[in-house]
Amino acid sequence: MGASNAQTATSTATAAILLSEWIPVIGLIFGGCCSNVFALESLVREVPKCGNLITFGQFAFITLVGLPSHVHLGWVPRLKPRRVPIQRWMVMVTLYFCVSVLNNLALGYNISIPLHIVFRSSGLIANMVCGYFVMNKRYPRMQALSVVMVTIGVVMATLSSVHGTHEHGLMRDSVIGIGLLSLGVVFAALLGLYQEQTYLKYGKHWREGLFYNHMLALPMFLFFYKDIGHQIQALSQSQSVNLGELPLVGALLGENMISVPYLWISLL
Prior knowledge:
73% helix; globular
């Protein structure tokens, strides 16, 4: 009897510990994903072709967060020793930059957020095809069948979205957007294969990869500086919101009245 009670108490304590750890994790994941989709949809609805600014903001933020871990900050900042050669990161940076820019550019061509999310699931078939022909991989029949079924669902969702567009101009934009997403899926598959080979050879240094994939891509945005400038102006002309009226922020600001264009809040 005593052993049974002890076992029950141990199981209860273990379950309590797991719940205390996993509930915040799940809440942060789903909360972050939902808030990200909501903010992205509000930005695209008001400024359809703001993809380059969104991508630049994402890359700049992740670079700033990773600076203390990968850069010696002093009078002359210098990079810390790397586990992976810089040449490897440059190839991945180019592919990752192309994927991010193509996916965000597609939002400006009559591509809805749900279709954007669903279409990226077609990366499964792209990964399998590239793995078969480039890496000489072989996949179980059940795995291949599952990927084909997912791809059929993506094609059906895409065709349904396009057929719902009757205007010629919107139809053309949809076709361009789907083309951009398709190209992004192919680049993402190639990136995944190259990343897999890199990690097999040098180890899984994902923090280093996250930093260099974003930091080294920042100069590439110079090609889009005019476009980003126009997008900044468009966001700055949106209706202003008093930060004191926002939850939690108002308690920190007190009686201070600070107004910010609401699209900048969505971007941040």
